[in-house]
Amino acid sequence: MSEVNEMPSNERIVDDLVRGVTESCTVGDNAELLTSTSQKPGGPVIDGHPSDEQLNRNETTSDNSSPDADDDKHENPDDDTIDEEALKSRECTLSDDDKQRLTKESEELKAGGNDLFKRGLYSESFQKYTLALRTCPLSSPKTRAILFANRAACKIHLGRTSSAIDDCSKAIELDETYVKAYLRRAKAYEETDKLDEALADFTKVLEFDRSNPDALEASMRLPPVIEERNEKLKAEMLSKLKDLGNCVLKPFGLSTNNFQMVQDPNTGGYSINFKS
What we know:
By secondary structure, the chain is mainly alpha-helical. Helix content is 64%, strand content 7%. The chain is built from eleven helices and five strands; from the N terminus they run H-E-E-E-H-H-H-H-H-H-H-H-H-H-E-E.
């Protein structure tokens, strides 16, 4: 499944700024000569040439490489790859009868996966659902949505929570009204401490089912938890910004203690006043 590049959080940006400025200050105060010998991943490199040890290691690795590596990958029971481009190409060659037959086969595989799941055989159930997804035609989106959501449940039990979120998202993409997929993704989000996303999914569930007990309970429980977390993050960020300011002001004989932040009660914004 494709990965989405996320924008760095404010906390991460502040961390990077503090680290960069602190390192600059340290180098300025304690300059040291760099050694001519560097260490690179994979083994030592001296004066730009690999050592005999590294050469021997490379030869051993080359001799022991398996020509069947690709075959092993396809036999991996944890492989959840669904090649939708290949499924699209196959779809062009299928007749209506073929599509009905493959849909029926995928339904049978789903039933087998359901039985294995009820027996607590989550790994085997996961494999059944994966095979069903590779069998089911793209022209049966409702069936595919159920398969993705069911496979997500297996992944949660197997500790693959982040991947379960991806499967739930795919199920919702195929069926935007699929309440069970929203609920499953919300709980997975909460397990990975993505509380804002979890609350958004629980809120979405209430749009379809206002009496859903899980969504109702979460809608009351999560807001204060999120607010408490945000206040804690804000305090940590202000502390890091103070450290950054002290590093910048140090050469001038100043510190952040020379400045006072005053909050405007009307706007909630802050002004900074200098105090000697």
